[in-house]
Write a structure and sequence with these properties.
- By secondary structure, the protein is of the alpha/beta class.
- The protein has two domains: about 10-235, Aldolase class I (TIM Barrel); about 245-300, no CATH class.
- It has helices at about 25-30, 50, 70-80, 95-100, 105-110, 110-120, 145-155, 175-185, 200-205, 220, 225-235, 245-255, 265-275, 280-290, 295-300; strands at about 10-15, 35-40, 40-45, 60-65, 85-90, 130-135, 160-165, 190-195, 215.
- An eight-stranded parallel beta barrel has the order 1-2-4-5-6-7-8-9, surrounded by six helices.
- α1 packs across α12 (about 245-255), α7 (about 145-155) runs parallel beside α8 and α9 (about 200-205) crosses α11.
- The longest helix has 12 residues, at about 245-255.
């Protein structure tokens, strides 16, 4: 699989997740063998390049950006050009504040603006530029295959498709048949996203020709080791046993301790890691009332 000039070592990617993909979590997923990791989106209308410069040392990385103002998008892309492996444009975000600015999933409702904004920008950037889209605005306007054709014409190097509509957000079932239609509509790689909860899911969708790579989000949020399990199954047909949530938390905590020790952010990650554990409800209560990062670590140390 080739994304422009970038060749991922495997087709298992970490999805961009707002509020989840801090530096330590991204580095954790790199250590678990992700073929590509995505950042949270960076708003092209309001960003501080100094605050995101630490991302330039992480590889393989795709920095996701969002916006609708041509000049601002181009400025940010040029600042990222040559410093990251992939630049990804978010054309599927359902957040009201982004829709109000005519960005994110607004483009799924008004795809005629895609070519007007991006056809001139993409040729100016040497780093591969990709896009992340949804299946459409709502059930009455499923248009992902048509949008993929527009994106390919504009020069995008690959497209990730989350086959839920803007209206669905994360409810209902992901439509993998639609992702397959997107792959059939274009020649550039299609990255399938949505509802991958087991290593066999990723292997099956790729081998059956539904997509060229997979992007894992909410499952990786609580169980990032699934990335390693997926890539190993595809590379060597071996099933890795689960890595305990306790081990995964401390893999993360070791990296987190090197960067930003923000109590509330660590609480979020600790709660996600505790999902599925015995007495998870009690653990989550203790985490919520913890007064320090070390106290949270101690809660995980007490797990047998």
């Amino acid at each position: 699989m080739q994304i422009g000039t970038f060749t991922p070592k495997n087709p298992v990617f970490l999805a961009p997740m707002l509020g989840v993909n801090c530096q330590a979590f991204i580095e954790l997923c790199v250590s678990y063998g992700a073929g590509l990791v995505y950042t949270q989106f960076i708003d092209s209308d309001d960003y501080d390049l100094f605050k995101i410069s630490h991302l330039f040392d992480i590889h393989p990385i795709a920095v996701q950006i969002i916006g609708s103002k041509k000049d601002n998008l181009l400025r940010l892309m040029k600042e990222l050009d040559g410093k990251v492996d992939v630049i990804d444009v978010n054309l599927g975000c359902p957040l009201p504040q982004q829709l109000a600015k005519k960005s994110g999933a607004f483009f799924m409702k008004h795809p005629e603006f895609i070519e007007k904004i991006f056809a001139d920008i993409i040729p100016q950037i040497k780093t591969p530029v990709t896009a992340k889209i949804r299946s459409g605005w709502d059930e009455e306007s499923i248009n992902a295959p048509e949008v993929c054709k527009i994106l390919e014409k504009c020069g995008f190097a690959a497209i990730s498709v989350h086959a839920r509509t803007k209206k669905q957000v994360y409810t209902g079932q992901n439509d993998w048949e639609l992702i397959k239609k997107c792959k059939e509509a274009v020649k550039i790689p299609i990255i399938g996203s949505g509802d991958i909860t087991k290593p066999g899911h990723a292997k099956s969708f790729i081998e059956r020709g539904y997509c060229d790579a997979v992007m894992i989000g909410r499952e990786a949020q609580k169980n990032p080791y699934i990335i390693k399990q997926c890539s190993t199954l595809m590379e060597s047909n071996r099933n890795l046993i689960d890595k305990s949530k306790k081990e995964q938390f401390f893999d993360f905590y070791k990296l987190y301790s090197k960067h930003e020790m923000k109590l509330n952010q660590l609480k979020d990650h600790a709660i996600w890691f505790s999902t599925g554990l015995k007495n998870a409800t009690d653990m989550k209560q203790k985490i919520l009332f913890a007064k320090s990062c070390e106290e949270i670590a101690e809660i995980f140390r007490s797990i047998l």
